[in-house]
From TrEMBL:
<feature type="compositionally biased region" description="Basic and acidic residues">
    <location>
        <begin position="273"/>
        <end position="284"/>
    </location>
</feature>
<dbReference type="InterPro" id="IPR036986">
    <property type="entry name" value="S4_RNA-bd_sf"/>
</dbReference>
<feature type="domain" description="RNA-binding S4">
    <location>
        <begin position="3"/>
        <end position="63"/>
    </location>
</feature>
<keyword id="KW-0694">RNA-binding</keyword>
<feature type="compositionally biased region" description="Polar residues">
    <location>
        <begin position="343"/>
        <end position="356"/>
    </location>
</feature>
<dbReference type="GO" id="GO:0003723">
    <property type="term" value="F:RNA binding"/>
</dbReference>
<dbReference type="Pfam" id="PF00849">
    <property type="entry name" value="PseudoU_synth_2"/>
</dbReference>
<keyword id="KW-0698">rRNA processing</keyword>
<dbReference type="GO" id="GO:0160139">
    <property type="term" value="F:23S rRNA pseudouridine(2605) synthase activity"/>
</dbReference>
<dbReference type="InterPro" id="IPR020103">
    <property type="entry name" value="PsdUridine_synth_cat_dom_sf"/>
</dbReference>
<feature type="region of interest" description="Disordered">
    <location>
        <begin position="256"/>
        <end position="365"/>
    </location>
</feature>
<dbReference type="GO" id="GO:0005829">
    <property type="term" value="C:cytosol"/>
</dbReference>
<dbReference type="InterPro" id="IPR000748">
    <property type="entry name" value="PsdUridine_synth_RsuA/RluB/E/F"/>
</dbReference>
<dbReference type="InterPro" id="IPR018496">
    <property type="entry name" value="PsdUridine_synth_RsuA/RluB_CS"/>
</dbReference>
<feature type="compositionally biased region" description="Low complexity">
    <location>
        <begin position="300"/>
        <end position="333"/>
    </location>
</feature>
<dbReference type="InterPro" id="IPR006145">
    <property type="entry name" value="PsdUridine_synth_RsuA/RluA"/>
</dbReference>
<comment type="function">
    <text>Responsible for synthesis of pseudouridine from uracil-2605 in 23S ribosomal RNA.</text>
</comment>
Length: 365
């Protein structure tokens, strides 16, 4: 069954579908030596596919394990793979991958912090970002200036921006002092600086912006700034089913756990075999004074060159038998065979859950 080229490459983690469509339009993708065009379909996953001259390996959907990472972005980091000025990017802290790469599910401004999702499945990233899916993003926003009820109604009803009409799906007041007020707001699309621009239409300035939720995945309060954690199977499948993708049967957390278990079993078997060999060698050691004792030597010849009476013949007696030692050979002591130490989790832990923030449920969400 053939699939669109951009869909196959997105699934392989080379970027979102829109990013790959741009690569194709710029003539940077080829199939079996021919420059690819938008609309090309891939029938053979073993075809020679190159992006910017580099060979790309793709696989059938059933052979891939979808990974999703939650990341707590600090302020100041850029949502780009590399920066000409050498500034820190969100990809700098993520774990390195072999044969795949992380695709960001949406972007955050350099001055915006909070929850970002990354995945190895570009198709999943594309669907989660697409406005037609209406996936909710929730932000905690602190504004400077007086905010009245009419301004809130305007932002919920909708206002005109330079790139079209926009609105908040929900606004909840969370307190404040003087001219500083904190709100929780919800949008269902990811236009550039959309939250900030919406507030600016009402004459107030956003002084702090932090994303706390994407879909039903909340930012874990235990996740430090710059920390990441991989989502477990139920959360991965929640995101996939929300955008009508088939559920996964396992995650890389499961795969890695199985590998660690197999390595541990292999080590324990090797230790047992070594101990058995040591024990066997100890039991086969000869006893002291046993059959290997030296025989008694014959007498020396008499002076004058003639052998003395009864001398000069080989001793007729049998070699003296050494008396067996009384002690038993030392037995090798059997160890417990377990490697020492416990595995240390990656920074930020291994899993994430769809948990709501502490401090009570906010109404109207």
């Amino acid at each position: 069954m053939s699939e669109k080229l951009q869909k196959v490459l997105a699934r392989a983690g080379l970027g979102s579908r829109r990013e790959i469509e741009t690569l194709i339009q710029e003539g940077r993708v080829s199939i079996n030596g021919l420059v690819a065009k938008l609309g090309d379909r891939l029938d053979d996953v073993n075809a020679n596919i190159r992006v910017d001259g580099h060979s790309v390996q793709v696989a059938a959907p059933s052979e891939l394990v979808c990974r999703v990472m939650a990341y707590n972005k600090p302020e100041g980091e850029l949502c780009t793979r590399s920066d000409p000025e050498g500034r820190r990017t969100v990809f700098d802290r993520l774990p390195k991958l072999n044969g795949a790469r992380w695709v960001a599910v949406g972007r955050l401004d350099a001055n915006t912090s909070g929850l970002m999702l990354f995945t190895t499945d570009g198709e999943l990233a594309n669907r989660l970002m697409h406005p037609s899916r209406q996936v909710q993003r929730e932000y905690m926003v602190r504004v400077f200036g007086d905010v009245n009820e009419q301004m809130v109604k305007n932002l919920v009803r909708g206002v005109q921006l330079e790139d079209g009409e926009a609105r908040f799906e929900d606004i909840q007041y969370a307190g404040g002092e003087g001219s500083n007020h904190t709100f929780y707001v919800v949008i269902t699309e990811g236009r550039n600086r959309e939250v900030r621009r919406l507030w600016e239409t009402q004459g107030v300035t956003v002084s702090r912006l932090k994303r706390v939720r994407y879909g039903d995945i909340y930012l874990n309060k235990e996740l430090p700034r710059g920390g990441w954690m991989e989502l477990e199977l139920d959360n991965v499948n929640y995101l996939r089913e929300m955008v009508e993708l088939r559920p996964e049967k396992e995650t890389m957390i499961t795969v890695e756990a199985q590998k660690r278990k197999a390595r541990g079993q292999k080590i324990r078997r090797a230790v047992r075999r070594h101990e058995e060999r040591v024990e066997s060698n100890e039991t086969r050691k000869p006893r002291r004074g046993g059959p290997s004792a030296k025989p008694v030597q014959g007498n020396k010849p008499a002076q004058g060159g003639k052998p003395a009476q009864g001398q000069g013949r080989p001793a007729s007696g049998k070699p003296a038998q050494g008396k067996p030692g009384q002690g038993k050979p030392a037995q090798g002591k059997r160890g417990n065979g377990r490697p020492g130490g416990n595995a240390t989790p990656n920074r930020g832990g291994q899993s994430s859950s769809r948990q709501k923030p502490q401090g009570g449920k906010r109404q109207g969400r």
